[in-house]
Design goal:
Layout lengths: L2 E4 L22 H12 L2 H4 L1 E3 L6 H4 L5 H8 L6 H9 L10 H20 L5 E4 L21 H13 L4 E5 L6 H7 L5 E8 L26 E6 L6 H19 L3 E6 L18 H9 L7 E5 L5 H15 L15 H14 L25 H9 L2 H4 L17 E6 L11 E2 L8 H10 L7 H18 L3 E8 L2 H10 L9 E6 L14 E7 L11 E5 L7 H19 L3 E6 L7 H11 L7 E6 L6 H8 L15 H14 L11
Parallel strand pairs: 1-2, 1-3, 3-8, 4-5, 4-7, 5-6, 7-8, 9-10, 9-11, 11-16, 12-13, 12-15, 13-14, 15-16
Helix pairs in contact: 1-11, 6-7, 9-10, 9-12, 9-18, 10-11, 18-19, 18-21, 19-20
The structure holds 5-[(3-aminopropyl)amino]pentane-1-thiol and zinc ion (ZN).
């Protein structure tokens, strides 16, 4: 299934008609450059074009009052003076004779996107719209927004398709207070937003945008705010919050639909956000949400005011929605102190509502919400500083790297008598192994693993790895007689200097992994039921689940809170996923793991499985081919000891691995 793209140039046909410094950044070119970048890059041709439509009155009334709608209906017939007068009653927004029409198209586009995804016409999609929506409220326009496109879409999805749980992720740099107000007492809609806050000194300067607004009444716990109290947040900060706040809750919530308030003013160069995260971060943020809700993801444009980073960020998002390999994110140094404080506050505010946050630490000593609010004087000085000096147009950042699709997506190395799963390309060619290597293999194993066809298997295995690292093949599945032996060979004989770092994810435990290297060339994360006595090296991280890998709650917690942050910081060139026989890992969890690991090493994942486990080849192939993993159904409360142990493990490791930090 494909990716929907909604765009209608009619939505470029309104603009600011008078002088208003607060609104001058919201220009038609925002939409034009975004769409043109998709066309120029060939991405629009790969999408399924879905026409925009006007939202009907009843659809708009799902969120807004009749009074407000009737008032907006009059704006097309207003004189310039009337429009100015009408605008005065709202904040940081402007009206135009054509904005009502465009606002209906923006909301209608979001609904068209929901229809396309919910009817299975497409897997996911993006609506490029203006005016944005997440600031508009029941009875008021605000922050360039007229109708709350995403809030209307959420209500519409519930009403028309009986969707039980909707996750709204708002990665725009402003707090979508309109969305928060709409659903704060509604446990069927989980709203997550991070936003520039600076201790309430940043627009819209609301006390209720802080982390302690967790929702009300039955909605308590279903509103998550992560305030950024400094500018200059980077990729590490964003990924840390996803791994340690959003994803654990999102997986526990188990949504049927994911809506994204896709604002790109959180990208570097944006004059509003003044952040430093690069456009390729949105490739990863999108990817990390794509295994929720069976892949049903609708992204709707909100903000984004630097035309260069906006266009790049939109392209990064669409390319991921299309399933292209992800770019590697280099030198993630871990979250800054301010970000850690924010995520620690958000986690502690929600630990009573979410069992996946149960073991979160107490809030930091310096309770950031009451930290002295800068005096108006200081604030005045800052704004007096010429806009140019503080402006971010001067920022430069590298073009996002090309994300090339290898000619072959998934290859397999199987015994001749094992049928190749659909969609995989059997690798039969194999270069002859150097005699030295063959003899090494032979004398390393006295097992039959390396008899005649055993050597063939290994030579094909090495051939496959060669093809992965040169991007001829994206990922692969290998069935071997002895998976532990094979793993050892791969790890020790990885001669290719194209592979500087290998992340080995070992599911289940059969025997001691006694080839732990300390040079950092290999990072082994082992998830199993057995406790490992002591911490051998920074590069061998055993995670123990008391009830074993069949405990999906414990497993997904270890993946989200430990494996993902480690993987991002380690930034491997190859991921080796080893399924030990008898691990007991549940199929949907196995597919989720493969899906999430695709975020590393440009998707170069090599799955090693034992021949006697060939029954799970089908689901492995499906995940390797990029099909969304099935939702993790009815997750139990994680084992307290495991949750606690994971927290302790993170605290012990965070000195070496900065991305594991969750406490200041
Ligand atoms: N410096 C201009 C102040 C703009 N304040 C409103 C921002 C609305 C963003 C919508 S994503
Ligand atoms: Zn914004």
């Amino acid at each position: 299934m494909g990716t929907a793209l909604l765009y209608d140039e009619e939505m470029t046909k309104y603009k600011l008609l008078w002088v208003d410094p607060a609104c001058k950044i919201e220009v038609p070119e925002r939409l034009i450059v975004s769409y043109e970048a998709l066309v120029r890059s060939g991405l629009s041709d790969r999408c399924i074009s879905i026409p925009a439509r006007e939202a009907s009155d009843s659809e708009i009334l799902l969120v807004h009052s009749e009074l407000y709608l009737e008032a907006v209906k009059k704006t097309p017939y207003m004189t310039l003076e009337d429009l100015k007068e009408f605008t005065l009653q709202f904040g940081d927004v402007y009206f135009h004779p054509n904005i009502y029409h465009c606002a209906k198209l923006a909301s209608g586009s979001a609904l068209q996107l929901v229809d396309s995804v919910m009817t299975g016409k497409v897997r996911n999609g993006i609506a490029l719209v203006r005016p944005p929506g997440h600031h508009s409220m029941h009875g008021a326009a605000n922050g360039f927004c007229v109708f709350n496109n995403v809030a209307i879409a959420a209500r519409y999805a519930k009403q028309k398709y009986g969707v039980k749980r909707v996750l709204i992720v708002d990665w725009d740099i402003h707090h979508g207070q309109g969305v928060q107000y709409c659903f704060e007492d509604d446990p069927s809609v989980l709203y997550f937003s991070w936003h520039r806050y600076e201790h309430q000194n940043f627009w819209p300067n609301l006390r209720e945008s802080d982390y302690d607004s967790v929702g009300k009444e039955s909605g308590a716990g279903f509103n998550i705010n992560v305030p950024w109290n400094n500018v200059g947040m980077e990729n590490s900060d964003y990924l840390s919050v996803f791994c340690h706040v959003l994803l654990p809750v999102a997986y526990e919530f188990c949504p049927d639909l994911v809506l994204v308030c896709a604002g790109f003013d959180s990208a570097i160069g944006d004059p509003e956000g003044e952040m430093c995260a690069t456009p390729d971060i949105f490739a990863h943020l999108t990817h990390l949400l794509m295994n929720l809700a069976g892949g049903k993801l609708c992204a709707v444009l909100e903000g984004g005011y630097n035309l260069t980073s906006l266009a790049q960020s939109v392209c990064q998002t669409v390319q991921t929605l299309l399933g292209d390999p992800l770019p590697q994110l280099a030198n993630l140094r871990g979250p800054c102190k301010s970000a850690i404080e924010s995520l620690q506050c958000a986690r502690s505010a929600h630990r009573r509502y979410w069992s996946f946050l149960k073991h979160a630490a107490d809030p930091p000593m310096t309770d950031i919400s009451t930290k002295h609010v800068k005096s108006a004087m200081e604030e005045e000085e800052k704004t007096e500083m010429a806009e140019e000096e503080r402006c971010t147009e001067g920022k430069v950042w590298p073009e996002p790297p090309e994300r090339l699709c290898p000619p072959v997506c998934s290859a397999s190395v199987l015994p001749d008598d094992v049928a190749c799963p659909d969609g995989l390309k059997r690798l039969s060619s194999s270069k002859d192994l150097e005699p030295l290597l063959v003899s090494k293999l032979k004398n390393r194993f006295r097992t039959a693993a390396v008899d005649g066809d055993g050597v063939t298997t290994f030579s094909r295995l090495y051939t496959l790895i060669e093809k992965l690292v040169v991007n001829e093949i994206r990922n692969g599945l290998v069935l071997v007689p002895d998976v532990a032996a094979a793993m050892m060979c791969v790890v020790q004989d990885l001669t290719s200097d194209l592979v500087k770092r290998v992340l080995v994810v070992c599911v289940g435990k059969e025997k001691e992994l006694d080839y732990i290297t300390t040079d950092g060339k290999v990072l082994v994360v082992q998830i199993s039921s057995e406790d490992s006595e002591e911490q051998r090296s920074k590069y061998y991280i055993p995670v123990c689940l008391k009830k074993g890998c069949s405990d999906t709650s414990g497993f997904i917690q270890a993946v989200l809170g430990l494996l993902l942050p480690l993987g991002y910081e380690y930034n491997p060139d190859l991921v080796l996923l080893v399924r030990m026989p008898g691990s007991g890992v549940v199929d949907s969890m196995w597919q989720q793991l493969i899906g999430l690991l695709q975020g590393f090493a440009k998707g170069h994942t090599l799955v090693l499985m034992q021949v006697n486990e060939k029954a799970c080849m089908g689901s492995t192939a499906s995940a390797l081919l990029g099909h969304p993993a099935p939702p993790l159904q009815d997750l139990q409360t994680p084992f307290p000891e495991d949750g606690d142990a994971l927290e302790r493990l993170r605290e012990r490791l965070q000195a070496d691995w900065k991305m594991l930090q969750t406490t200041s």
